[in-house]
Amino acid sequence: TSFNNARDFWLPEMKSHAPAMKFWLVATKIDYRDNEEKINELKAQGKSIITTEEGRRLASEVKAVGYAETSALTRVGVSELFSAAVSKFYGLGEKKKKDKDAGCTIS
Question: How many helices and strands, by DSSP H and E, does the chain display?
Fold first, then answer.
């Protein structure tokens, strides 16, 4: 499953090419959680839909900088993910240390 592949395949692949890279773990198709047909289809295949807790646990285990859940179909979480990722990347919302020697001085 994609859930297991994140830990067992994709993370080692990313680490081998960019060991210092920061990344988010993103659960997609969360609209399946409310879709009985999809739930039954997955059960018939011996699969299940992961819970938010399972996703957060894996994100912590693989040391992701963030965890998000999205659905492209219903657009849930998509814009929030991009906003959070941009904020993390640019350090928005984090307190910056003020350098007392920084700035412009006119004498």
Answer: 5, 2
